[in-house]
Amino acid sequence: ARIKGFVRKVFKVEGDEVKAGDALAEIESVELGEAQSEVAVAQARRKTAEVNAQRETGLLDRQLTTAREAEEAALLLSERKAAQTAAQQRVMALGGSKSPFGVYVVRAPIDGHIVDRQLNVGQTVQGETVAFRVADLTKLWVELAVFERNIAAVREGDLVEVTPLSDSTLTIEGRVNHIERVIDEATRSAAVRVVVDNSAGKLRPGQAVQATLHTSGPTHEVVSVPDTAVTYVDGKPTVFIAETPERVIPVTVKLGPTDGKRQAITEGVTAGQQVVMAGVFALKSELFR
User: Fold this and answer.
1) Single residue among 113, 134, 155 that ends a domain in this structure
2) What are the phi and psi torsion angles at 27 (to 5°)?
3) Whole-prediction pTM value?
């Protein structure tokens, strides 16, 4: 809301679909009424000045008045026009150029849905009150946190597959729209913004998702193992390497990125080594016997 006032009507509530320009609420405002009154007064004064200037011009043509009086009439008309313009601009600034007298109509700025409302009938509001939040939910931003060791491979326009945690069978495609230039010191990650088409309404703002990035930037080959092969011993990521068909040994490793199915290993395992994929929990239990 741009002005102070009293809420007299609320037309839309949370969840309602709206079009740009739809009336959402009406606020009675003394401030707006006074500004609109000033416009009416300014218009009347300008018309009076116009009549006077026209009369002085006619009298000057017939040499019945002085040039100075005609100039003063023209100057007064200019001042009255400026005053009217200023009064109209104030009303426009208050958002009341197309409103009934003393009533500010809150309108939707875009097509979308009401996602938040701070107005109720009978409420007194201030000029800084955020009356409604309208969101276009047909396109959403997904904010991803990508570790700094992987961020160099991400490029704007890269394909991203987004899956809600609430429905692992659903995959929605999007594209990388922005890559943050600053690394977060606490998480050692950078924010990556993905734009997804949500015309079907499958995603909701604030919903948790996981994503697979199909990067187009430079990459390097790494050893990877199935996610099921990795366990934690004393808090350290560990895999069991098969030295022989009858003997396995635990090896502490350093983890790289994962796609949810395979886990990259940056240290501890070399290509060609055999790792245990099933029964890892039983092997881990044997270590503590």
Assistant:
1) 134
2) -125, 125
3) 0.55
